[in-house]
Amino acid sequence: MTQTLLTGGTVNLNGDLIHADVLIANGKIAAIGSKLAAPDAEVIDVHGMLVTAGLVDIHVHLRDPGQTDKETIATGSAAAARGGFTTICAMPNVDPVPDTPARIQQMCARNAAEGLVHIKQYSSITAGRAAGPTVDFAGVKQAGAIAVSNDGNGIQSADTMYQALLGAKQAGLPLAEHVEEDSLKHGGVISAGAKATELGVPGLVPAVETSQLARDLALAQATDAPYHVCHVSTAVSVAMIRQAKAAGIKVTAEATPHHILLSDSDIPGNDANYKMNPPLRGKADCAALVQGLLDGTIDCIATDHAPHTNAEKAAGLCGAPNGITGSETAFAALYTALVRGKQAKWTLTQLLNWLSAAPAKLFNLQAGKLLPGGPADIAVFDLDHGQVVTKDEFASKGQNTPFVGRKLYGNTMYTFVDGKCVYKQGEQF
């Protein structure tokens, strides 16, 4: 029997921080308690470290198949492991699009064979993620899809969204929507406002997001269907979701680390590592996301990990594709800015919940909690020693992040998936 004993750490036992050991045996959590005895176990001393359930990310772009110069299942899952994530959900904007039961089966098989962590698969909402018919929701669910999304594009037809909400509801599949009204974009590349004017680039007004969100909330109410909003970025959206929840609409929402931590005023110039969709908004929008998580309007945090090549990002704000990486910096960036120090807004256990149990619950994933007898999906973090983010340390192929050069605390020391150590700081994958 293979055993590993993590000794002396501070364990996040589903919201309670306790000093305890964790015994792993045959891929499961065998015991959590003080001074556990396991003479045959490999002992790992984690004194002074945080031991918690592996993080869960319901919004990741792995680029595989179709754009493997940017990322692969192997490199994307390694990046997740380096960030403490043990379960991730792969968006369907790949080529070919996983939009049929057969393609979902193929992707699930590849995810299991090539991934270092648990990879759950999205189906698209429509065939080819294009305007047109919706997918066979019951069929893709039976084939292994855990949710449906056209992320990267908003669904422009109200009727298509109406039919999608009904179909996903009937199949029991979460529907996660990227809200974006194309007719309002006008070539914008960052948020409309003073920074766009300063840099001389076209801006995106908040109504690009909020107008389609308003439509979708009305449709979710009309269909009584669950509806999940991806990467909320504006204070107005937060207020709309809050009001919708109060009215009994079955809406849930996620926010990203970059929309929480960065505003458009942080954009230093023509630097496409600050370009993503939706764009960075104002400081008041960041504050609304922080508060929205605290009051339950926003349900969880997801990275929207979106790797691109350095050559693509070198094209600047007007030429580069949207998206930044997030898997390897998410916990540390949020912990450093919002939990550690005198300006803390959140508690450690709140942050951990929004990055583990909460997203797992939204998508009915068996993940995000430390339970005796449950899977040994575990992350170990060093909260006390900061490290400067450098590009050459990334496991992801993508180095496109604005967090390079920042000193972050809460770096991952170990990640275990089904009891196997898939990441140890300082060792190569």
TrEMBL record:
Signal peptide: none annotated. The keyword Metal-binding applies. Its EC number is 3.5.2.3. GO terms for molecular function: allantoinase activity; dihydroorotase activity; zinc ion binding. Binds 2 Zn(2+) ions per subunit. Residues 49-234 form the Dihydroorotase catalytic domain. CDD domains: DHOase_IIa. It catalyses: (S)-dihydroorotate + H2O = N-carbamoyl-L-aspartate + H(+). The active site is at D304. The keyword Hydrolase applies. Substrate binds at H61, L62, R63, N93, N277, H308. Zn(2+) 2 binds at D151, H178, H231. Keywords: Hydrolase, Metal-binding, Pyrimidine biosynthesis, Zinc. Pathway: Pyrimidine metabolism; UMP biosynthesis via de novo pathway; (S)-dihydroorotate from bicarbonate: step 3/3. Zn(2+) 1 binds at H59, H61, D151, D304. GO terms for biological process: 'de novo' UMP biosynthetic process; purine nucleobase catabolic process. It holds the Pfam family DHOase. GO terms for cellular component: cytoplasm. Its cofactor is Zn(2+). NCBIfam families: PRK09357.1-2, pyrC_multi. Belongs to the metallo-dependent hydrolases superfamily. DHOase family. Class I DHOase subfamily. Catalyzes the reversible cyclization of carbamoyl aspartate to dihydroorotate. This is Dihydroorotase. The lineage of its organism: Bacteria, Bacillati, Bacillota, Bacilli, Lactobacillales. The gene is pyrC.
